[in-house]
Write a structure and sequence with these properties.
The complex is a heterodimer. Chain A has one domain: TIM Barrel (Alpha-Beta Barrel), CATH 3.20.20.240. Chain A is 50% helix and 6% strand. Chain A is built from 23 helices and eleven strands. In chain A, helix 7 links the parallel strand 5 and strand 6. In chain A, helix 7 packs across helix 22, helix 11 runs parallel beside helix 13 and helix 21 packs antiparallel against helix 22. The longest helix of chain A has 23 residues. Chain A is globular and about 85 Å long. By secondary structure, chain B is of the alpha/beta class. Chain B has one domain: Rossmann fold. Chain B is built from five helices and five strands, in the order E-H-E-H-E-H-E-H-E-H. In chain B, helix 2 packs across helix 3. Chain B is globular. The chains are: A alpha/beta, B alpha/beta. Chains A and B meet through helix 5 and helix 19 of A and helix 1 of B.
Chain lengths: 559, 144
Amino acid sequence: MKPDPVQLPLPGFDRENADWTERYQAQIGEDRVLRNRSGIEVRPLYTPGDWSGHRYLEDLGFPGKPPYTRGIYPTMHRGRRWSQRQLIGLGTPADYNARVKSLLDAGGNAISLIPCNSVFRGVDCDEVPTALLGTCGTVVNTVTHMDGCFDGVALAETSTALNDPSPFTLLAFLLGTARRRGVPWSQISGTSNQSDYLSHFVANHMFYRLSLPGSRRVLLDHIEFCQQQVPRWNPLSVVGQHMQQAGATPAEAMGLTICSAIQYADDCIARGMSADAVLRKFTFFFDISISFFEEVAKFRAGRRIWARIVRDRFGIEDPRAMRFRFHAQTSGADLTRQQPLNNIARVTVQALAGIFGGLQSMHTDGYDEAITCPTEESARIAIATQNILREEANLCDVIDPLGGSYYIETLTDQMEAEIEEMIARIDSAGGMYEAVETGFVQSMIGESALAFQEEVESGQRKVVGVNCFAEGTDDSEPAPYRPDPEAIEQVVAGFVEYKKRRNSRASQRALDALARSAASKDENVFAAVVEAAEAGATHGEIVVCLRNELGFGNPLITP
Amino acid sequence: MSAEVAAPPARVLVTKIGLDGHDRGSRIVASYLRDAGMEVIYTPPWQSIDAVVNIALQEDIELIGVSTLATDHLIVPQLMKTLGDADLGDVGVIVGGIVPETEHEPLLAAGVDRIFGPGATREEIVACALELVTRIRTARGTDS
């Protein structure tokens, strides 16, 4: 027999509520005001007085239908497991290749490539101290390096996320590798994981290489090129992760990310691209902090807002465009150097929040994240954490299992209001591009980072092993990952040799053509990047060429 | 330093060398030192070692704070050598961020005064900075 739907006011509700309030206050004395990271007050109890479900169809609906609060697909994780996409990047192309194969064996089902910091900085491996090469990512400067990274990996059957900021040389190297192997570009799938240049200017300064206007133009060329030539590729991943890691609160990070997506969509439309086709390819990438309920609510609210924006701002009702597809990564900033094994517990809670938040793809951090690029052991435990949550804890059995909780639904509404307010602030600042250009966003995030740190230092925000329970425990440090110096020397020597042996006339011609395309108004710069890569030009050469034409980024950094 | 005579504020450079750009920590530390009354010159990340030494020379820097999160500490010994070559061997140098314990020794041997890891507090950092500034002022006879 089905129970009757809840009718408010419930007979006796007010009396019982007043009675509980009195008893609660009698026992707790003066109650503290608790706030979550986004500044929302957290009360001790939520009831149908906060959320009654009477707007169920409008606010929640069913999974796979607008407003998608409960999930973007009808079956969610019960129908299809999320992609376990671990960030991978270390050492030489051969080191990377070995790690990829080991993670695929351990149950990972999608791959990613994090290049060496030298690549992020736009230079080749022979331009930096060798001590810094391969410590935090893989040295990839040419098509040959990329071929080595994916040795024995079937490109047409593997979805690859490339941490590949403007001008997207890694995708160019991947396409070059595909051509060498006779794999049609139409079969290459994956995501340009770091194409969101606005987030780089705001928060992850390691990535910026080109001026803000230059980055804007190259991204649009990249999106257009991929639409035409690499249809299974997602050319844009809009990144909230950088901003939250840099100190933005969860609500700020979600709001700013949606503002970036609006900016990119507006830019594509101004370029004459079809809004529908472009929005169908947008993906998102978020941080998952350990603030469990807040993160679940953040994701649910983000889905609802994005669906509404696609419908109301862009006038599109195509579900493929309205679906808020996202990858998420457990927060490294929450992990501690102290008592490092505790981080396994932290990552587990963060991952739970991501799963209940309805993610499509996840990276779980290694417990040694605060010290080093993950070792093979910590990387395996991180994958195992996902496997345990999925296979043993049965978290995939029920879709949106926290949906309908008085607290979660109230918090989802409150996070939605905070996020909407952030979007309104950025709108009135002239949109995300302008808000970044003036430094408005950077200052806001800096203030939030400082406020958070002060809460930790004052002990108001507890961190186990840091400002509480810090005594008398094992504080031994995991050994850091360092690549084999000889192998690194060999890669550098091989690279120098490669530059001597290649057809330098062909690569120079391609670089000249790249410069001309950047100087022109109507040529596609990314098409010229791909041609230069295939003609043997290196990452550093391509970046230098474009910097000369498009200018170097000014990061607008203030303490 | 006597309480009656106001000493000029400490001149501190907060910077990052090498390849990494994560600056959440260096920005926070710069704010701490500024709040403590020091004059802080703050640079964007990825400074070259020569650039850092030049700023130290031109700005009469008494203390350098180097933030490192992604192995850039591996080139700190080279910074120390370049500082020494420029006759700035007495400038205090604090390294903060992620430096694995097994890699502290080469930095300290090269002359780094202090390495702060995660969990270092505002008080510890400020106290150490003041101590190093006092040291250089005493040595240079600029402390009165």
